[in-house]
Q: What sequence folds into this?
């Protein structure tokens, strides 16, 4: 029996009044239930009432003047009608029945076979099914809302980990549109192919892919550090799919690396200050002794040796000063400066080196000046150190260096990429340390000075490198208007 706690509002769309009265009488004979029954015989009037959502259930006759009940069904459902629609016809017709159910009708009734029992069963089934579908739609909207609003990348994958559905955060992470991602496999977005192979092996042996820290590649060839979590699921039809979440930890990694670098340099600075004090004390004594000996030495050979001692003492003192300068924040004078202008000036300073190796230089600047607060000359030194490293890393004749400035409001990002041999992963965390170098004739001070200058500008710096593919330096500056 139908529940009796409320009145069920029914609209009968029927162009024959006698048929309406017969159907109305059968419905009113249903026990223990209150009904409010209205009649409508005009197609447009029926569509208006359906669009207003004034009823709980609709009975629609197949013949409605020049139009049919199938047309009304189709228009009602396309306009968003969620209430149950039941098609009525004078003669049973299997094709009409199939069409009606395909469009979205919940039932198909032949008017000549109607009685109270059949109508009661049809109404009960329609209302129960409607309540179930509405609950499903509410849940779908709720979970779809969570899916779309998630700050993490959430997605569904099919065979071969090809994307089947993605949220907006996934598009933002990879810089592809939703339509473009539908042509991609997740494997193609791995920066390191061995990591993609490891994921394939895990999925072959387990339905649950444990969390993995991976490097993924965006459309702009930017590497992002991410936590990837995926698991295999099955839908109601038994078809399997994979659902996944990607949490971008790139900024967290940058902060960790910067914090580690600061702590390491603090320790180095303490050591350098101690050494400077301990070395300069005897160095001062040596210099004073040389000054005392010079007037007393009449031998030319002795004076030559004293000059050698004085010059080398001066050199040691200069090295100590240089080390101490690297261990403290660079003194800078900030002014509103155009990044394009600084980079162009840096390129002019390195033009001979670039030309000698016949390196191809690709530049990509925004249409408007990229203004930041900077010390022009100091920042030029920082850029020049990175650029010289890139020039020395790339091969002659086939070397390519790409410099781009991206407007990523509220910041500008400068990317300096090369196609050199790359930096071993174990060395990346050390390249900004004073006196660390992999060059046979290098001193390891250039990138240490660069890091110091960028820290004084409160600029972020990140390095990605792949052996055999090249290195990318990413510098982040706060925009000024």
A:
């Amino acid at each position: 029996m139908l529940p009796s706690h409320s009145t069920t509002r029914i609209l009968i769309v029927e162009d024959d009044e006698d048929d309406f009265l017969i159907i109305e009488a059968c419905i009113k004979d249903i026990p223990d239930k209150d009904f409010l029954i209205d009649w409508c015989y005009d197609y447009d009037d029926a569509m208006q009432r359906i669009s207003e959502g004034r009823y709980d259930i609709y009975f629609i006759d197949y013949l409605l003047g020049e139009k049919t009940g199938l047309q009304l069904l189709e228009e009602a459902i396309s306009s968003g009608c969620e209430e149950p629609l039941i098609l009525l016809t004078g003669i049973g017709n299997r094709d009409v029945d199939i069409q009606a159910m395909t469009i979205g009708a919940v039932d198909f009734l032949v008017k000549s076979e109607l009685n109270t029992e059949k109508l009661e069963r049809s109404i009960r089934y329609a209302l129960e099914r409607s309540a179930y579908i509405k609950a499903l739609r509410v849940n779908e909207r709720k979970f779809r809302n969570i899916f779309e609003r998630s700050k993490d990348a959430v997605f569904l994958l099919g065979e071969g980990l090809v994307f089947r559905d993605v949220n907006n955060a996934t598009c933002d992470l990879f810089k592809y549109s939703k339509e473009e991602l539908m042509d991609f496999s997740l494997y193609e977005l791995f920066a390191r192919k061995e990591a993609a192979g490891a994921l394939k092996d895990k999925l072959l042996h387990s339905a649950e892919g444990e969390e993995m820290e991976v490097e993924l590649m965006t459309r702009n060839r930017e590497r992002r550090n991410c936590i990837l979590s995926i698991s295999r699921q099955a839908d109601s039809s038994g078809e399997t799919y994979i659902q996944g979440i990607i949490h971008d930890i790139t900024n967290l990694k940058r902060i960790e690396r910067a914090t580690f670098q600061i702590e390491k340099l603090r320790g180095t600075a303490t050591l350098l200050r101690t050494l400077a004090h301990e070395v300069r004390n005897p160095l001062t004594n040596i210099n004073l002794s040389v000054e005392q000996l010079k007037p007393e030495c009449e031998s030319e050979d002795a004076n030559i040796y004293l000059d050698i001692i004085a010059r080398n003492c001066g050199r040691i003192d200069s090295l100590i000063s240089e080390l101490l300068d690297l261990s403290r924040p660079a003194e800078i004078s900030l002014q509103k400066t155009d990044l394009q202008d600084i980079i162009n000036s840096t390129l002019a300073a390195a033009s001979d080196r670039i030309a000698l190796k016949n390196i191809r230089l690709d530049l990509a600047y925004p249409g408007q000046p990229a203004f930041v607060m900077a010390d022009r000359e100091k920042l030029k030194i920082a850029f020049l150190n990175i650029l010289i490293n890139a020039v020395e890393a790339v091969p002659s004749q086939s070397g390519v260096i790409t410099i781009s400035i991206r407007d990523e409001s509220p910041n500008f990002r400068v990317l300096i990429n090369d196609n050199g041999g790359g930096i071993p992963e174990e060395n990346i965390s050390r390249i900004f340390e004073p006196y660390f170098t992999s060059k046979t004739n290098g001193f390891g001070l250039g990138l240490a000075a660069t890091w110091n200058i960028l820290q004084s500008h409160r600029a972020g710096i990140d390095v990605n490198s792949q052996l055999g593919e090249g290195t990318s330096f990413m510098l982040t500056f706060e925009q000024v208007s």
Remarks:
- Confidence is low (pLDDT under 50) at residues 1-5.
- The longest strand covers residues 223-234.
